Queue: 4 jobs
Job 1
Amino acid sequence: MPAPSSDLAHRLIEASELRGEFVLSSGKRSTVYFDKFLFLTRPDLLGELAHEVAGLLPERVDHLSAPEGAATLLVAAVSLETGLPVSVVRKEPKAYGTMSQVEGYAPEGARTCLIEDVSTTGHQVRRAAEVLTGSGVTVERIVLAIDRGGADHLREAGYDVEAVVVLRPDEPSGRR
């Protein structure tokens, strides 16, 4: 699959890049923050992004997954693009009902692509991958909408990773 248009990358960054003082989910501090809700809630960007993510799926996947949170918007859009069923990985097992940590369609033996919105450290998506693996699902690939360095850590852990947009925290994004 060819790289996404630089136009899409520019529009995702333009829509979501904030400057200031921010604490990331990892606890690290950053002067740049990508508010994923600013592109995941725009139908034009979400639809185009879902199309790009769908193009990065390995042929062997029969299922899509996302960590609990904003990535569920993206995985739902990719599901509509591909017709593949979805599961969502909770941070903790649900304390009622099924008491499951993996919600939705995730049968043992499924081959999934785990989809994440923005990843700086890869920790959250790696935890989700470990939960899926522990429940008998094979994580064939992880696809990141915006990779801010998380892909490097995920690859070090042995995962196949692709990203629609790659930005490194120490590189300028082109927006001042």
Job 2
Amino acid sequence: MTHEILIAGFGGQGVLSMGKILAYSGLMDGKEVSWMPSYGPEQRGGTANVTVILSDERISSPILNEYDIAIILNQPSMDKFESRVKKGGILIYDSYGIHKPLKRDDIDIYRINAMDTATELNMSKTFNMLVLGGLLKIVPMVSLESVMKGLKKTLPERHYKLLPANEEAIRKGMEIIRKT
């Protein structure tokens, strides 16, 4: 099975690191993986997106025009990428960053209140892990064990103490995602 995923938002939301963790998780599960980030020179506060492909077969190209799954965390990204989700695909969005109604009725749409939950639980640094948990609830493409190994691979050793909070955020994200 192949999953072609776009994650898009503002720099500083953990978009690129979420993609990297997902890619490492795929490697840990023995999948073929592509990770292709894209961001402006300003990075934090500017637009950022990453394409991740996880597949049981070889990946022919990391360049995609359409996606099976899009995780969209702000309105400019929604305006740019909503139309690029394949018919029958999945769109996940954070309710905090989207202000216009979605236009599609040919895809499955899920809302996750990740920013509100992160603020409420005083876990702002785990916002992206809440979103990742929501994705894995809808499409369990990698195991939680592999995600934790991937997270450990991406975090500097001095931040290993944050691993339990990140796992808690992933599990919480699995609880709070809702189909609209």
Job 3
Amino acid sequence: MTYQHAAAYFVDTSQVHRLQKVDALFDEGWIQNFIFNHPESLPIDEIEPAFGPLLPVCRELRTKAGFADIIFINPLGLITIVECKLWKNPEARREVIGQILDYAKELAGMSYEEFERIALASQGGSIPSLYQIASTADDTLDEQTFIDRVTRNLKRGRFQLLIAGDGIREGVEQITSFLQQYGNLNFTLALVEYSLFKQPGEGSNGFFVMPRILARTYEIERAVVRIEGNGIAVTSPASLQVSSKFQGQRTTVSEQVFIENLQLSPQVKERFHAMLQQAKQQGMYTQPGSNSLILKTDTQDLNLAIFKPNGTFYNTGIASRTNDFGLPEIGERYLVELAGLIPGAYCNRSKNRFDWSVKTSDGNPKIENLLAVQDQWFDLVASVIEELSAKYNKSLS
């Protein structure tokens, strides 16, 4: 199968214009320049939200494996490597995977000082430190905290690897799917295709840029995957091992970063992580939010709990969501019965139904409150999902 964009259209108040695909002006330098100057064009929220915002560090970062096209960083000390390629032949498609994995391995062997030195040299020394770049997005950021975060992410080989180009075909996607089968990646790898369109006619100026994700990996472990010649090899250097408490656990980078930054004891973090894994086995999933981690259901996409870095949670959205289905009693039952499991908690019925949530006299209940009644909570979730599915399906029949 060959992936192609369908025709794109521009619609104004009076006319509909079918846009023409543009290929002649597309080269790797153009793509690289556009992404570096417009990092918001990369759909990070759909890949790994924890890596945002993307703050440009440098282009053509020098490593022993070659020059990495683009490096971004963020206040969490998370590094994104972007490699820009045109897909003209099968060899180029295969080699770019190997290239970006080699860049990740080289960076994983660096100290903070070494990484900062080569990064600043590659951008010409116009900015005195990585911390100054990161602090533009967070003016409360502590410099030593930032350095510690970058050091930890380098040591663990925790990167976002993005391959961006035009006309990506199934050859590369098949390789990515093959890597994903191993579940041994300590980074997120995604393929992002950029296509250019213009309005028809010789006098038209400007272009419409359309990025889209073609493929990505979802799980991280503790290995390096390398493409060598015509084969793929998996190795596990010590420099890329993650903390033992996460070994064997299936989780996204965003989820792992959220857990690490939770303002809870290591023991409670481990219990929380184990609870999330059990929740996934019961048909739930996590979705990173803005400074939060949302636990949702596959059934009608309900918000069951929204966890905050300060160790609390709340439940906005579920009451209004079930109300939209004409089943307001289900969302209300969930909140009332969940409040009944937590000492001193109650269902706060705000004027805006979206804001209904479980509260305590101190504000939002604590994650530890939920862990204390974990089994009863899972039973409640299962009951709510069963009732919602039965009543919703009946309403459709």
Job 4
Amino acid sequence: MPLQIKLIDVPEFDGLRDEWNDLLRRSACDSVFLRWEWIHTWWNIFQQNKRLFILTARNDGRLCGIAPCYIDRTGLISLRTLKFCSEELSPDYMDMIAERGQEEGVVRGLVNDILRRAGEWDLIALDNLRAESSLLSDHALFRDYACTSRVSNHCPYIQIAGTFDDYYRPRPQLVSFGLKRKLKILLEEKKVTYQIVSDEEGLSKGLGALFDLHEKRRQLMKVQSNFLSPEVRQFHQELSRHFFKEQILSLHLLCDGEAAISAIYAFNYKNKISVFQTGFDPAWKKWSAGAALLYLCVQRAYQDGLREFDFLKGTEGYKSLWATAVRDEMRLTVYNRNLRGSLYHAMDNLKTALKGIKHALD
């Protein structure tokens, strides 16, 4: 029986939680950022000026594929861009969800339906894409369209094996920071406590502390941060309650009395820790409060027998000090053959040519 592909409406999306997450568990792309709770919470908060464009694939009634997308309309030419849901929240390891072992046929069915609806979009821009995605490996998918793919992000992570001491001692650049000594001072002399949020009251306080600490860090570094916008704060306040109930949330704090001096906001999913955001009080920089908390979190991941500690996208220096491996994320761009798509393709080609000229001159 051929696949039944459907563009679902919002009420259908609202009621798809159990089927969605069950399919995700049966897929090869099972990521916390593809869970129904993450995408549904994003839609509830960020839907303004967007069009939901989620396709489902069923085989004899059984859900076997999902294309978790939306259409954004931006720019002077009102470009209609098909993107992965929640792009502005900077998720990682995005993909079309397909039943394991059926990826090629399911993804091809979903893509063919998107191409059949070419009158509804001008550009497909799928960022933060898993490097192993069938969208990249099946070269026949977009053969009739101009398309490009490139590495867009690097995600450093720790492959957990053996003991924490086996991992930590051979890393002289980490050892040179004297984190063991500083941690001893923090815990024994400064009476700082290490806390892991374990109830809803602590969740609310801990998340508030994370935002406050992140703001202090932002001011110190004199940078902008999307994480502190009202919409993003609301998203994480709502999402954290869902993930807390599902035992996915992992919020760690170092506290001086009642006041948090550093925080790590992470997700514990599929035997893997993913660090989404951190914050620390610059007043405690002398004792490396942020790095000390990270030391405790990594140590605990080893003690708990987890398989991976993922720093997610970003090339911040501290990540390379801790990481033992790096995986890439990709950006796939497909240009429609209509006027807007062709104009955008021409502009992209011009930008590439100008960069090449600049590089040659340099």
